[in-house]
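does this look right to u?? NAP version
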Amino acid sequence: MYTLIDGKATAAQIHSELSMEVQNRLSKGLRPPHLAAVLVGHDGASQTYVNNKILACERVGFQSTLIRKESTVTESELLELVASLNQDKDLDGFIVQLPLPDHINPEKINEAIDPAKDVDGFHAINLGRMLLNLPGYLPATPAGIIELLRRYNIETEGKNCVILGRSHIVGSPLSVLMARSARPGNCTVTLCHSKTQHLKEHIQRADILIAALGKPGFVQGEWVKEGAVVIDVGTTRVPDASRPSGYKLMGDVDFETAAPRCSAITPVPGGVGPMTISMLLWNTLDSANKRHYGG
Ligand code: NAP
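got this back:
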Protein backbone atom coordinates (compact mmCIF):
# COMPACT_ATOMS: atom_id res chain seq x y z
CA MET A 1 0.00 0.00 0.00
CA TYR A 2 1.40 3.40 -0.96
CA THR A 3 1.45 6.61 1.03
CA LEU A 4 -0.45 9.44 -0.60
CA ILE A 5 1.71 12.55 -0.22
CA ASP A 6 -1.03 15.04 0.53
CA GLY A 7 0.11 18.50 -0.54
CA LYS A 8 -3.23 20.07 0.25
CA ALA A 9 -3.17 18.92 3.89
CA THR A 10 0.52 19.81 4.25
CA ALA A 11 -0.11 23.27 2.80
CA ALA A 12 -3.01 23.75 5.24
CA GLN A 13 -0.67 22.85 8.10
CA ILE A 14 1.94 25.33 6.82
CA HIS A 15 -0.75 28.00 6.51
CA SER A 16 -1.65 27.60 10.16
CA GLU A 17 2.06 27.91 11.04
CA LEU A 18 2.21 31.07 8.92
CA SER A 19 -0.89 32.50 10.66
CA MET A 20 0.87 31.99 13.99
CA GLU A 21 3.97 33.78 12.68
CA VAL A 22 1.77 36.70 11.61
CA GLN A 23 0.21 36.84 15.09
CA ASN A 24 3.70 36.78 16.53
CA ARG A 25 4.68 39.80 14.44
CA LEU A 26 1.48 41.66 15.32
CA SER A 27 2.03 41.03 19.03
CA LYS A 28 5.44 42.73 18.67
CA GLY A 29 3.82 45.75 17.01
CA LEU A 30 5.07 44.79 13.54
CA ARG A 31 2.91 44.97 10.43
CA PRO A 32 1.85 41.78 8.61
CA PRO A 33 4.03 40.61 5.70
CA HIS A 34 3.01 42.23 2.42
CA LEU A 35 3.07 40.50 -0.99
CA ALA A 36 2.19 42.15 -4.31
CA ALA A 37 1.33 40.33 -7.53
CA VAL A 38 1.55 41.91 -10.96
CA LEU A 39 -0.84 40.43 -13.52
CA VAL A 40 -0.54 41.46 -17.16
CA GLY A 41 -3.45 40.74 -19.51
CA HIS A 42 -6.39 38.38 -19.04
CA ASP A 43 -5.02 34.83 -19.43
CA GLY A 44 -7.47 32.54 -17.59
CA ALA A 45 -4.88 30.26 -15.96
CA SER A 46 -2.72 33.22 -14.86
CA GLN A 47 -5.75 34.93 -13.30
CA THR A 48 -6.55 31.75 -11.37
CA TYR A 49 -2.94 31.40 -10.14
CA VAL A 50 -2.79 35.03 -9.02
CA ASN A 51 -6.22 34.89 -7.36
CA ASN A 52 -5.13 31.79 -5.45
CA LYS A 53 -2.01 33.61 -4.22
CA ILE A 54 -4.05 36.63 -3.10
CA LEU A 55 -6.62 34.40 -1.37
CA ALA A 56 -3.84 32.48 0.41
CA CYS A 57 -2.42 35.80 1.67
CA GLU A 58 -5.81 36.75 3.09
CA ARG A 59 -6.19 33.36 4.74
CA VAL A 60 -2.93 33.61 6.69
CA GLY A 61 -3.31 37.32 7.52
CA PHE A 62 -0.77 38.76 5.06
CA GLN A 63 -1.42 42.04 3.33
CA SER A 64 -1.66 41.62 -0.43
CA THR A 65 -1.86 43.94 -3.42
CA LEU A 66 -2.96 42.94 -6.91
CA ILE A 67 -1.64 45.20 -9.66
CA ARG A 68 -3.32 44.67 -13.03
CA LYS A 69 -1.94 45.89 -16.33
CA GLU A 70 -3.44 45.54 -19.78
CA SER A 71 -1.51 43.38 -22.26
CA THR A 72 -0.70 46.59 -24.16
CA VAL A 73 1.63 47.69 -21.33
CA THR A 74 5.12 48.39 -22.70
CA GLU A 75 8.29 46.76 -21.45
CA SER A 76 9.61 50.10 -20.17
CA GLU A 77 6.34 50.78 -18.29
CA LEU A 78 6.60 47.38 -16.65
CA LEU A 79 10.27 48.01 -15.78
CA GLU A 80 9.22 51.31 -14.18
CA LEU A 81 6.60 49.48 -12.13
CA VAL A 82 9.20 46.93 -10.99
CA ALA A 83 11.56 49.76 -10.00
CA SER A 84 8.84 51.40 -7.91
CA LEU A 85 7.96 48.10 -6.20
CA ASN A 86 11.67 47.57 -5.45
CA GLN A 87 11.66 50.95 -3.66
CA ASP A 88 8.38 50.45 -1.77
CA LYS A 89 9.35 50.10 1.89
CA ASP A 90 5.91 48.73 2.83
CA LEU A 91 6.32 45.77 0.49
CA ASP A 92 8.27 42.64 1.40
CA GLY A 93 8.07 40.78 -1.88
CA PHE A 94 6.38 40.71 -5.26
CA ILE A 95 5.86 38.46 -8.21
CA VAL A 96 5.29 39.19 -11.88
CA GLN A 97 3.02 36.41 -13.11
CA LEU A 98 4.26 34.58 -16.22
CA PRO A 99 3.71 34.29 -19.13
CA LEU A 100 4.07 37.90 -20.29
CA PRO A 101 2.94 39.18 -23.71
CA ASP A 102 5.40 38.49 -26.55
CA HIS A 103 6.64 42.10 -26.77
CA ILE A 104 7.99 41.92 -23.18
CA ASN A 105 11.23 40.09 -22.43
CA PRO A 106 10.57 38.08 -19.23
CA GLU A 107 14.32 37.76 -18.45
CA LYS A 108 14.68 41.55 -18.51
CA ILE A 109 11.78 41.92 -16.06
CA ASN A 110 13.08 39.12 -13.83
CA GLU A 111 16.56 40.61 -13.65
CA ALA A 112 15.12 44.03 -12.74
CA ILE A 113 13.52 42.66 -9.56
CA ASP A 114 15.47 43.37 -6.37
CA PRO A 115 16.77 39.91 -5.28
CA ALA A 116 15.78 40.83 -1.70
CA LYS A 117 12.14 41.03 -2.87
CA ASP A 118 12.32 38.14 -5.34
CA VAL A 119 10.07 35.80 -3.35
CA ASP A 120 9.52 33.63 -6.45
CA GLY A 121 13.26 32.84 -6.28
CA PHE A 122 13.75 33.20 -10.05
CA HIS A 123 16.44 35.93 -10.01
CA ALA A 124 19.96 34.90 -11.06
CA ILE A 125 21.31 36.03 -7.67
CA ASN A 126 18.93 33.76 -5.77
CA LEU A 127 19.54 30.84 -8.13
CA GLY A 128 23.29 31.38 -7.74
CA ARG A 129 23.00 31.52 -3.96
CA MET A 130 21.04 28.26 -4.06
CA LEU A 131 23.86 26.66 -6.08
CA LEU A 132 26.40 27.80 -3.48
CA ASN A 133 24.17 26.65 -0.60
CA LEU A 134 23.93 30.23 0.72
CA PRO A 135 20.80 31.76 2.24
CA GLY A 136 18.41 33.21 -0.33
CA TYR A 137 14.98 32.60 -1.77
CA LEU A 138 14.48 29.14 -3.22
CA PRO A 139 12.15 28.87 -6.21
CA ALA A 140 8.73 28.08 -4.78
CA THR A 141 7.85 24.83 -6.58
CA PRO A 142 11.20 23.05 -5.95
CA ALA A 143 11.13 24.35 -2.35
CA GLY A 144 7.61 22.93 -1.95
CA ILE A 145 8.76 19.52 -3.17
CA ILE A 146 11.72 19.52 -0.75
CA GLU A 147 9.32 20.48 2.06
CA LEU A 148 6.96 17.61 1.18
CA LEU A 149 9.86 15.13 1.21
CA ARG A 150 10.99 16.53 4.58
CA ARG A 151 7.59 16.45 6.22
CA TYR A 152 6.86 12.92 4.95
CA ASN A 153 10.29 11.72 6.20
CA ILE A 154 11.20 10.35 2.79
CA GLU A 155 14.76 9.01 2.83
CA THR A 156 16.69 10.56 -0.05
CA GLU A 157 20.32 9.94 0.90
CA GLY A 158 22.15 7.75 -1.62
CA LYS A 159 19.03 7.31 -3.76
CA ASN A 160 18.82 7.59 -7.53
CA CYS A 161 16.68 10.63 -8.25
CA VAL A 162 15.49 11.01 -11.83
CA ILE A 163 14.00 14.38 -12.79
CA LEU A 164 12.01 14.72 -16.01
CA GLY A 165 12.21 18.29 -17.35
CA ARG A 166 14.98 20.90 -17.02
CA SER A 167 13.08 24.21 -16.85
CA HIS A 168 14.60 27.09 -14.89
CA ILE A 169 11.64 27.16 -12.50
CA VAL A 170 11.30 23.44 -11.70
CA GLY A 171 13.64 20.74 -13.05
CA SER A 172 17.02 22.50 -13.06
CA PRO A 173 16.82 24.00 -9.54
CA LEU A 174 15.45 20.69 -8.23
CA SER A 175 18.45 18.86 -9.65
CA VAL A 176 20.66 21.12 -7.51
CA LEU A 177 18.55 20.75 -4.37
CA MET A 178 18.28 16.97 -4.62
CA ALA A 179 22.04 16.58 -5.17
CA ARG A 180 23.29 18.96 -2.49
CA SER A 181 24.63 17.81 0.83
CA ALA A 182 21.49 18.33 2.89
CA ARG A 183 18.47 16.53 4.21
CA PRO A 184 16.48 16.02 1.97
CA GLY A 185 19.28 15.79 -0.58
CA ASN A 186 22.39 13.66 -1.13
CA CYS A 187 20.81 11.95 -4.13
CA THR A 188 22.54 10.87 -7.31
CA VAL A 189 20.59 12.94 -9.80
CA THR A 190 19.78 12.31 -13.45
CA LEU A 191 18.22 15.32 -15.19
CA CYS A 192 16.26 14.30 -18.30
CA HIS A 193 14.91 16.45 -21.15
CA SER A 194 13.57 16.14 -24.66
CA LYS A 195 16.98 15.09 -26.05
CA THR A 196 17.50 12.34 -23.45
CA GLN A 197 17.93 8.90 -24.98
CA HIS A 198 16.44 5.75 -23.45
CA LEU A 199 14.20 7.79 -21.13
CA LYS A 200 12.25 4.72 -20.03
CA GLU A 201 15.45 3.03 -18.79
CA HIS A 202 16.32 6.10 -16.73
CA ILE A 203 12.83 6.14 -15.24
CA GLN A 204 13.06 2.43 -14.39
CA ARG A 205 16.19 3.11 -12.29
CA ALA A 206 14.57 5.92 -10.26
CA ASP A 207 14.18 5.46 -6.51
CA ILE A 208 12.73 8.97 -6.55
CA LEU A 209 11.03 10.10 -9.74
CA ILE A 210 10.09 13.75 -10.20
CA ALA A 211 8.07 14.46 -13.34
CA ALA A 212 7.88 18.06 -14.60
CA LEU A 213 7.21 17.77 -18.31
CA GLY A 214 3.73 19.16 -18.87
CA LYS A 215 2.72 16.00 -20.78
CA PRO A 216 -0.42 14.55 -19.17
CA GLY A 217 -0.23 10.83 -18.34
CA PHE A 218 3.18 10.50 -20.05
CA VAL A 219 4.82 8.19 -17.47
CA GLN A 220 3.26 4.73 -17.57
CA GLY A 221 2.93 2.76 -14.34
CA GLU A 222 4.94 -0.17 -15.69
CA TRP A 223 7.99 2.12 -16.14
CA VAL A 224 8.02 2.95 -12.42
CA LYS A 225 10.38 0.98 -10.18
CA GLU A 226 8.69 -1.06 -7.43
CA GLY A 227 8.81 0.96 -4.19
CA ALA A 228 9.70 4.25 -5.89
CA VAL A 229 8.65 7.65 -4.55
CA VAL A 230 6.90 9.62 -7.31
CA ILE A 231 6.46 13.38 -7.25
CA ASP A 232 4.23 14.58 -10.08
CA VAL A 233 4.68 18.28 -10.80
CA GLY A 234 2.78 18.21 -14.09
CA THR A 235 -0.41 20.26 -14.10
CA THR A 236 -2.13 20.39 -17.47
CA ARG A 237 -5.70 21.49 -18.17
CA VAL A 238 -7.36 18.70 -20.16
CA PRO A 239 -10.87 19.22 -21.64
CA ASP A 240 -13.57 17.49 -19.57
CA ALA A 241 -17.17 18.24 -20.61
CA SER A 242 -18.52 16.58 -17.43
CA ARG A 243 -17.15 19.39 -15.23
CA PRO A 244 -18.63 22.88 -14.87
CA SER A 245 -15.17 24.38 -15.61
CA GLY A 246 -14.97 22.32 -18.83
CA TYR A 247 -11.54 20.94 -17.89
CA LYS A 248 -9.68 18.80 -15.36
CA LEU A 249 -6.09 18.98 -14.17
CA MET A 250 -3.83 16.08 -15.11
CA GLY A 251 -0.33 15.19 -13.98
CA ASP A 252 2.54 13.76 -16.04
CA VAL A 253 2.25 10.34 -14.40
CA ASP A 254 -0.57 7.86 -15.03
CA PHE A 255 -1.63 7.72 -11.38
CA GLU A 256 -3.89 4.64 -11.60
CA THR A 257 -1.17 2.35 -12.96
CA ALA A 258 1.78 3.96 -11.14
CA ALA A 259 0.41 4.28 -7.60
CA PRO A 260 0.22 0.53 -6.80
CA ARG A 261 3.96 0.19 -7.59
CA CYS A 262 5.02 3.19 -5.47
CA SER A 263 5.92 3.50 -1.80
CA ALA A 264 4.64 7.09 -1.94
CA ILE A 265 3.13 9.33 -4.61
CA THR A 266 1.65 12.82 -4.97
CA PRO A 267 -1.81 13.25 -6.53
CA VAL A 268 -2.72 15.87 -9.15
CA PRO A 269 -4.39 18.08 -8.12
CA GLY A 270 -3.65 18.33 -4.40
CA GLY A 271 0.04 17.38 -4.48
CA VAL A 272 2.78 19.81 -5.45
CA GLY A 273 0.46 22.65 -6.52
CA PRO A 274 -0.73 23.83 -3.08
CA MET A 275 2.85 23.68 -1.75
CA THR A 276 4.08 26.20 -4.31
CA ILE A 277 1.90 28.95 -2.84
CA SER A 278 2.88 27.98 0.72
CA MET A 279 6.56 28.41 -0.13
CA LEU A 280 5.91 31.76 -1.79
CA LEU A 281 4.29 32.89 1.47
CA TRP A 282 7.23 31.55 3.54
CA ASN A 283 9.64 33.51 1.39
CA THR A 284 7.52 36.64 1.91
CA LEU A 285 7.45 36.13 5.69
CA ASP A 286 11.20 35.58 5.64
CA SER A 287 11.68 38.81 3.71
CA ALA A 288 9.47 40.72 6.17
CA ASN A 289 11.45 39.36 9.13
CA LYS A 290 14.80 40.18 7.48
CA ARG A 291 13.58 43.70 6.74
CA HIS A 292 12.82 44.21 10.44
CA TYR A 293 15.57 42.23 12.14
CA GLY A 294 18.23 42.66 9.44
CA GLY A 295 19.95 39.72 7.79
P1 NAP B 1 8.58 23.61 -19.43
O1 NAP B 1 9.33 24.89 -19.22
O2 NAP B 1 7.65 23.48 -20.58
O3 NAP B 1 9.66 22.44 -19.49
C1 NAP B 1 9.30 21.15 -19.85
C2 NAP B 1 10.52 20.29 -19.79
O4 NAP B 1 10.15 18.96 -20.16
C3 NAP B 1 11.65 20.71 -20.75
O5 NAP B 1 12.89 20.63 -20.09
C4 NAP B 1 11.54 19.70 -21.89
O6 NAP B 1 12.78 19.41 -22.50
C5 NAP B 1 11.05 18.48 -21.15
N1 NAP B 1 10.34 17.56 -22.03
C6 NAP B 1 9.26 17.82 -22.80
N2 NAP B 1 8.89 16.71 -23.47
C7 NAP B 1 9.75 15.73 -23.11
C8 NAP B 1 9.88 14.37 -23.45
N3 NAP B 1 9.03 13.77 -24.31
N4 NAP B 1 10.86 13.65 -22.87
C9 NAP B 1 11.73 14.23 -22.00
N5 NAP B 1 11.64 15.53 -21.63
C10 NAP B 1 10.67 16.26 -22.20
O7 NAP B 1 7.73 23.21 -18.18
P2 NAP B 1 7.72 23.69 -16.62
O8 NAP B 1 7.42 25.14 -16.57
O9 NAP B 1 8.89 23.15 -15.90
O10 NAP B 1 6.42 22.89 -16.15
C11 NAP B 1 6.34 21.49 -16.26
C12 NAP B 1 4.98 21.04 -15.72
O11 NAP B 1 4.91 21.39 -14.36
C13 NAP B 1 3.78 21.74 -16.39
O12 NAP B 1 2.70 20.84 -16.44
C14 NAP B 1 3.47 22.87 -15.44
O13 NAP B 1 2.11 23.27 -15.49
C15 NAP B 1 3.79 22.21 -14.13
N6 NAP B 1 4.10 23.15 -13.06
C16 NAP B 1 3.41 23.02 -11.93
C17 NAP B 1 3.69 23.87 -10.86
C18 NAP B 1 2.92 23.71 -9.60
O14 NAP B 1 2.95 24.57 -8.76
N7 NAP B 1 2.23 22.60 -9.43
C19 NAP B 1 4.67 24.86 -10.98
C20 NAP B 1 5.39 24.95 -12.17
C21 NAP B 1 5.11 24.08 -13.21
P3 NAP B 1 13.64 20.53 -23.30
O15 NAP B 1 14.28 21.39 -22.27
O16 NAP B 1 14.62 19.73 -24.08
O17 NAP B 1 12.64 21.27 -24.17
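The radius of gyration is 19 Å. idk if thats expected tbh
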